[in-house]
TrEMBL record:
GO terms for molecular function: 4 iron, 4 sulfur cluster binding; ATP binding; DNA binding; DNA helicase activity; hydrolase activity, acting on acid anhydrides, in phosphorus-containing anhydrides; metal ion binding. Pfam families: DEAD_2 (PF06733), Helicase_C_2 (PF13307). GO terms for biological process: DNA repair. Gene3D superfamilies: P-loop containing nucleotide triphosphate hydrolases. It comes from the Bacteria. Belongs to the helicase family. DinG subfamily. This is ATP-dependent DNA helicase. PROSITE patterns: HELICASE_ATP_BIND_2. It comes from Halomonas alimentaria. Residues 186-451 form the Helicase ATP-binding domain.
């Protein structure tokens, strides 16, 4: 009998509900897609803008007024931004940046439709015959309000809202039918194999319980048990039983998306005929630069044929996409081509209507995350699945960090239009003054530092950056020919000023001088918990899984997970006799000992290769160390085939590197620990029989990492562990995990450093590895 998970079902939510914003998104948009030179305020700026408008109003002003009404068979609801009962004036507040005249016509039409819909609900609820309607546009830089006012009768507003609801109702009825069919199918969904793999069922049960109780689960589960299927299946089963509206499967890299799509296909979401047995809408979200059909063109109707008339063709494309259900990258692209619409923005639209979205972690966790925004807007109960979650700390730090480079500003200033020369010149002067004040030398100049931690943000420079952002916004509107580099400068400047507003002990402000006119000013996030905690709170439940997720306190602290988060470690299905573990306790790979280590490492690799010829990976802490080891090995053992990772490898080069690992081949691939070949690759059986790891993977002891250690010590009392030991050993275990991929695999891992013999380090290694052989130990 197929395996199933059980549980209680929650009651169905009322059918045919719609939010005002969704109703208007579907029925009020028309004309061209237009995303030119109008950088939107951040969600934080938008929220603060709404609060500022409310503060300016009188004491009787009702902010965030909830409104609900049944219209043409739909329960329509939303929150009007503000209502003044004394003046009988209803307001809808919209924040913007730059000149209001540049706001796209379809955006203005959408805003007016929303306001008039709220007006109809207000009049019906309060028995009003008429109301004054005001669109309030707030420019976030200056705080200037622009008011667009109109008088409207209740009868006209209700007639308009009724017409919208009638147009939307057919779509809503089909959506309700789809939800009912989806939930019924998921109730009956069976595991696609006769039984679970060893370890897979405990993982699935823990995931189901997390969804049932609304908690975060940290699941450390070994490679080879089928984590992707073992997490997706229980979350799909939980959707109807515990009222989950959407699932988001979030990955760190493209291979993770492929595995998720393959698992969904295995569960019946799609078949070779492109129509699966499971009525589940699956969407793969792809980065804009990879989805764009015309790179380099601006996103508006005058520049791109796929943007011209986009909203006029969108309804037909949306309906067919919903009917097809399976929207991976290629399927979405083909459908978009049939309807003459942009595939990227069609994907953005279908994120609103898909049951399972497969995409990068930034789609939920970064500052402008699409899925997080949709969930908040629509009140979704979302289940998150985060694959390879041991990388989330590092990825999140990157999301909430930004760097400005002086050389980019100098180069752009030479070709700047007149309106930008002055603000760029002011920035250059402030930058030079800051470098002088901090006493920074060129990198490598003895006696003076080239790096400095700034205890406070440079206030004068921040003011100049804000001025530059305003000037760039104006210039890009006036001169669309300026192009991508200037837009990128604007986005970086805005990102810097936004992060500066939230500056605290979670972030480091650093100034680095790399040469004359080549300084870097950066805000580098150290503790992402402060930014991520609200994102986890916004999800109904979340499952973070990886083969190397421990220790749990590290993840809880740095990711800002709730106090009731659950830790589960799934036992490995592998046995100690599958892996020969050797620790060279007579070797040191510390920086001072690198040169002396090269000969012994070459001999150890050659000896192991002689004992068991086959394919091996040899990992080193840096490209410099790798290159030195490769040179020594090639000189002493030229008969053994070798190939190496190099800096900046293109995707085709990475594929060629891995293609060398054939089942009947031999040789050694030299790679960097923590790089592209140290995790996320699968070389089962004889394709890889062993790995050498010539480093503990510890980050370098440099000024930045010492500041990180101090901040982590101050916040959590575990500075050394969190800054150095945990990140290093995670890399080691990930790299070693390339060797044993299945129950039939046999292999060897050689750890080349005396520190691996220390008890506190060995305790961090997987328990199933067993006792090591330690040449050189007495």
């Amino acid at each position: 009998m197929p395996a199933e998970l059980g549980g209680d079902r929650v009651s169905d939510a009322p059918r045919l509900r719609v939010a005002v914003r969704t109703l208007c998104d579907v029925t009020a948009r028309e004309g061209d897609l237009d995303h030119r030179f109008t950088p939107s305020p951040s969600a934080r700026e938008g929220l603060e803008g709404h609060r500022e408008v409310a503060r300016r109003r009188g004491a009787g002003y009702l902010a965030e007024l909830p409104l609900t009404g049944e219209v043409a068979g739909l329960l329509v609801s939303g929150r009007a931004d503000g209502y003044d009962p004394a003046a009988n004036c209803l307001e809808e507040v919209k924040t913007h940046r730059g000149e209001l005249s540049r706001l796209a016509a379809n955006q203005r039409a959408l805003h007016r439709a929303q306001l008039r819909s709220y007006g109809a609900l207000l009049c019906a609820e309060r028995g009003l015959d008429a109301v004054e309607l005001v669109l309030v546009y707030l420019e976030v830089g200056s705080g200037r309000e622009t008011r667009v006012s109109e008088q409207a009768t209740a009868s006209a507003l209700m007639a308009e809202l009724t017409e919208r609801c009638v147009r939307y109702r057919d779509w809503a009825e089909r959506e309700a039918h789809h939800r009912a069919a989806r939930d019924a199918a998921l109730e009956a969904l069976a595991f696609p194999f006769d039984d679970f793999r060893p370890g897979q069922r405990p993982l699935a049960e823990a995931c189901y319980q997390a969804a049932a109780t609304g908690r975060v689960l940290l699941a450390q589960a070994p490679t080879g048990i089928g984590k992707t299927l073992g997490t997706l299946f229980p979350l799909l089963k939980a959707m109807p039983r515990h009222g989950l509206d959407r699932l988001a499967f979030l990955t760190m890299k493209t291979p993770g998306r492929r595995l998720a799509l393959e698992a969904l296909a295995r569960l019946g979401a799609v078949s070779p005929s492109r129509q699966g047995d499971l009525p589940l809408r699956v969407l793969e979200l792809t980065a804009r630069d990879k989805a764009c059909e015309y790179p380099g063109r601006a996103c508006h109707g005058e520049a791109c044929a796929l943007a011209a008339g986009f909203y006029d063709r969108l309804p037909a494309a949306r309906e067919e996409a919903a009917e097809r259900r399976w929207l991976d990258r290629e399927g979405l692209r083909a459908l978009a081509a049939e309807h003459g619409v942009c595939p990227y923005y069609l994907g953005q639209e279908m994120a609103r209507w898909s049951d399972v979205t497969v995409g990068d972690v930034n789609h939920w966790f970064d500052d402008h995350a699409l899925l997080h925004g949709l969930a908040r807007e629509n009140g979704w109960r979302v289940g998150l699945l985060v694959d390879e979650a041991h990388n989330l700390v590092g990825r999140a730090r990157g999301m909430y960090s930004v760097t400005l480079r002086q050389r980019d500003l100098v180069r752009l200033r030479r070709a700047a239009p007149a309106a930008l020369k002055a603000p760029l010149g002011r920035l250059q002067r402030h930058w030079q003054a800051l470098v002088r004040e901090e006493g920074l030398a060129d990198a490598g100049e003895p006696g003076r530092p080239a790096w400095r931690q700034l205890e406070e943000l440079p206030g004068g420079l921040l003011g100049v950056l804000q001025g530059l952002a305003g000037a760039l916004t104006e210039a890009l509107g006036e001169h669309p020919e300026l192009g991508v580099e200037w837009q990128e400068l604007l986005f970086e400047t805005l990102a810097f000023t936004r992060l500066a507003e939230r500056f605290g002990d979670h972030t480091l402000c650093e100034l680095t001088r790399e040469g004359r006119g080549r300084a870097r000013l950066a805000l580098r996030n150290l503790i992402p918990a402060d930014f991520l905690a609200p994102r986890f709170a916004a999800a109904r439940s979340a499952v973070l899984f990886s083969a190397t997720l421990g220790p749990p306190d590290y993840q809880r602290d740095l990711l800002g997970l709730p106090a009731d988060s659950v830790w589960r470690e799934v036992p490995s299905p592998f046995a100690a006799d599958q892996l020969e573990l050797r620790i060279r306790a007579d070797l040191s790979t510390r920086l001072r000992d690198r040169e002396a280590s090269l000969g012994p490492i070459a001999e150890e690799i050659a000896a192991q290769y002689t004992r068991r010829p086959g394919h091996y990976l040899a990992f080193f802490s840096s490209f410099a160390y790798l290159e030195a080891a490769l040179t020594r090995f090639g000189a002493t053992h030229p008969e053994i085939p070798v190939w190496a990772q190099h800096r900046g490898m293109a995707e085709a080069e990475r594929d060629a590197f891995l293609a060398r690992f054939t089942a009947d081949g031999r040789g050694i691939g030299f790679a960097v620990l923590g790089g592209a070949f140290a995790e996320g690759i699968d070389l089962p059986g004889e394709r890889l029989v062993g790995a050498f790891i010539a480093t503990l993977g510890l980050p370098p002891v440099d000024p930045f990492n010492e500041v990180l250690r101090e901040r982590l010590q101050a916040r959590f009392g575990r500075g050394d562990e969190y800054a150095y030991r945990v990140p290093g050993l995670v890399k080691v275990v990930q790299a070693a995990g390339r060797v044993i991929r299945g129950p039939e695999d046999r292999g060897v891992v050689v750890l080349l450093d005396d520190r691996f013999a220390r008890p506190e380090v060995r305790r961090r290694l997987p328990g199933w590895w067993g006792e090591p052989v330690m040449p050189g130990c007495r």
